[in-house]
Amino acid sequence: MLVRILTEPKNALVPQFQMLFGMDKVELAFTPDAMEAIAHMAMERKTGARGLRSIMENLLLDAMFEIPGSDIVSVHVTGDSVRGDAAPIFVHGQPLPTEDDQEEEQALAQAK
């Protein structure tokens, strides 16, 4: 049930965080095990759905500070990273150009 709350409602937490990371052109992905671990943690804390945001924020806090100004293009959250056994996986590389970037390049090319 809590896993569905993370992904299905129109204001679900996973899409919210994916959009937040997307502002820095970073893909955020969760394994099914990670989603289950987040839900399990909320049940252990007896916070239910209300505690999901806090768990997600604590889990992604370091990534949110590390991403701006870096070459990170993707963050993968696993069950181990939710349980504290490992950090989320950062994938480094060149960010993919967005439509805005392409429009800016075209405008600059036309201005020359």
From TrEMBL:
Q: Which InterPro entries match?
A: ATP-dep_Clp_protease_ClpX (IPR050052), Clp_ATPase_C (IPR019489), P-loop_NTPase (IPR027417)
Gene Ontology molecular functions: ATP binding; ATP hydrolysis activity
* A Pfam family: ClpB_D2-small
Keyword terms, alphabetized: ATP-binding, Nucleotide-binding
Record-linked SUPFAM superfamilies: P-loop containing nucleoside triphosphate hydrolases (SSF52540)
User: Which GO BP terms apply?
Assistant: proteolysis involved in protein catabolic process
Identify the GO cellular component terms for this protein.
Answer: mitochondrial matrix
Which residue intervals make up region (Disordered)? 93-112
Q: Any idea where the Clp ATPase C-terminal domain is?
A: 1-90
The family database entries (Gene3D superfamilies) matched by this protein are listed as: 1.10.8.60
Question: In its UniProt entry, what is this protein called?
Answer: Clp ATPase C-terminal domain-containing protein
From what organism does this protein derive?
Penaeus vannamei (Whiteleg shrimp)
* Higher taxonomy: Eukaryota, Metazoa, Ecdysozoa, Arthropoda, Crustacea
